[in-house]
Write a structure and sequence with these properties.
Elements lengths: L1 H19 E3 L6 E3 L5 E2 L10 E11 L3 E10 L5 E10 L4 E3 L1 E6 L4 E10 L6 E12 L7 E12 L6
């Protein structure tokens, strides 16, 4: 009897775990269903549903910060989104500017980086990843834009 109670408890815990987590078996990505940083609104019955689940810093050095942006499309049609990074005050940095097609039902990651050529002193109090939802495959007509801030200051000794 005790064995059955343990098995039943394990089944309940696993079931709750699958309800709490959304697993995309096609790509192997796992997203917590309650972690959505940004989600597009359905526009004119286009049935596009893009969402950003996570933005994290995966690498940082004196002159470069690399972000990983995890996104997915749970809509019935493909969507389009543009990722870029930027900073204020401007310190002669370069930024990525990538437009992605969000295939329906697919979850994926994109790596976005911000680089400055002023290694000796690159101070910024406002660095962000910007996400823009695009209406069509030509990447015109921005529908929504969101900025996720990240503060970073380098000192004179950074090499």
């Amino acid at each position: 009897m005790k064995k059955y109670i343990i098995v039943l408890g394990l089944v309940i815990v696993l079931g709750a775990g699958f309800i709490f987590l959304k697993v995309d078996l096609g790509t192997g990505h796992v997203y917590r269903s309650n972690e959505v940083l940004w989600s597009s609104a359905e526009q004119n019955n286009q049935k596009k549903r893009a969402s950003i689940n996570k933005i994290e810093v995966v690498n940082e050095s004196c002159d470069k910060i690399v972000f990983r942006v995890s996104y997915q499309n749970t809509g019935q049609t493909d969507g389009y989104i543009r990722f870029n990074t930027s900073a204020k005050p401007y310190v002669k940095g370069s930024r990525g500017d990538h437009s992605k097609t969000l295939k329906k039902g697919v979850a994926s990651d994109i790596y976005e980086q911000w680089i400055t050529d002023e290694v000796t002193k690159a101070n910024t109090n406002e660095l962000w990843v910007s996400l823009e939802e695009i209406v069509d495959e030509k990447f015109h007509d921005i529908v929504d834009r969101v900025k996720i801030p990240f503060s970073k200051t380098w000192d004179h000794e950074c090499k």
